[in-house]
Amino acid sequence: MSDICDDTLPLEQHPEPSPYLLDISAGHLLRRAHQRYQSLFQEYAAGLGLTGPQFATLVRLAELGSATQNHLGRLAAMDSSTVQGVVRRLIDRGFIQTGSNPMDRRMRVLTITPEGERLLQEGQAAGQRANDTLMAMLTPAERDHLLELLQRLSDG
């Protein structure tokens, strides 16, 4: 009788598959770390009314100066329907404005408003504080290594 995994070993010598353990699952641990960061960010950004996706959108838009909604969504790691809602809410609150692209008047270009810049500065302070709190138990070398590993996982 042959085993599907490896025909070269007798069936009784095949190791048992490891059970799935939630507490050491990368996905579970990443989700828990993300929840902790989001909780810290919301605590430190209390009163700003700023969600994580809104914050990411403002950060990317400030870096770019101006962008189309699709380009901004890609850079902020959001699908088109999500970025559409995020941008609409930021426009409604006066943090982003729209204009026409001088090269193509049909294309809508987004820029951050002065009010959006002020909100972004407060959000960046809250984000930095949340990052620092989340990683306080790590040495500087461990922080760098963790960020390097997360970047590799994110880039796929």
UniProtKB/TrEMBL annotation:
Domain of life: Bacteria
Protein name (record): Winged helix-turn-helix transcriptional regulator
InterPro entries listed in its UniProt record: HTH_MarR-typ, MarR/SlyA-like, Tscrpt_reg_MarR-type_CS, WH-like_DNA-bd_sf, WH_DNA-bd_sf
PANTHER family per the UniProt record, alphabetical: TRANSCRIPTIONAL REGULATOR, TRANSCRIPTIONAL REGULATOR, MARR FAMILY
Keywords annotated in UniProt: DNA-binding, Transcription, Transcription regulation
Any matching Pfam family: MarR_2
Domain HTH marR-type residues, every copy: 23-155
PROSITE patterns given in the database record: HTH_MARR_1 (PS01117), HTH_MARR_2 (PS50995)
Chain segments annotated as coiled-coil in the UniProt record: none
Lineage start: Bacteria, Pseudomonadati, Pseudomonadota, Alphaproteobacteria, Acetobacterales
